[in-house]
Amino acid sequence: MRGRSNLMVGGLLALVLLAWGSLFTVSEKETAILIQVGEIIRSDYESGLHWKIPVYQKVVKFDRRILTLDAQPEQILTGEKKNVLVDYFVKWRIADPEKYYRAFGGREADAALRMSQTTKDGLQAELGNRTIREVVSGERTAIMQSVARRVGERLSQYGIDIIDVRIKQIELPRKVASAVFERMRAERQRIAKEHRAKGEKEARIIRAKADRKRTELLASARRRAEEIRGAGDALATQTYAEAYNQDPEFYAFYRSLQAYRQALSSKQDLLVLEPDSEFFRYFGGTGD
User: Where are the beta strands (DSSP E) in the chain?
Assistant: First the structure.
């Protein structure tokens, strides 16, 4: 009786183990393939509970989410035959589990190695036709898009879908960096020299215009001053003439008084004249 009971327990346990080995689950984050004697017989599993033949069949699961390959920086030769260190990462996913398994046996490390080599080739193809200046500054977006397209086309045969390739950093080796910085410095100095020369030229033009304007203003002012002075002298002459014509004798007397005032303005003045000199015409007489 006891032996029979043990046999039933053993049989029940065997059935449980058989059922346990026959069932498997696929989560929403996974995709799976069913392998039977080394051959893939199914790869279209949805998320949920599924069954297989224990021992005879094997299930291999893969991550169906977007994965990241953060590779080591690679030395890439530019169109100027200068090496640059390119640090990048790749966003990818497993698009076809069957092709992926046949290519890499399900080993992600092998897939990452192939992806790194292919990406390096793509970077070399793109950067090899560009200068360091174009690589570092102006065309990084176009380079990333082109590399992603190249790598995606080559890896699609292995069931890999390339989502994006991003360049994190581009560095120059120390010797190359020194040469590039010297060339950039020389370029900036040349541009600065051109700007200074242009500024000096503009300054000379402005200074010449200002000098010409100053000369014109001074000439105009002198001309106007001469005109005013001439008009004043003419008016004074006219006034003198009119005064002389009204009373010539009084005018002569007035002029003599002015001459006396100027000649005898200082106590130290000494004049030696004859008594009947014309200068004393109005002294002591009527001036006749």
Answer: 23-26, 30-36, 39-42, 48-51, 57-63, 67-70, 74-77, 83-94, 160-171
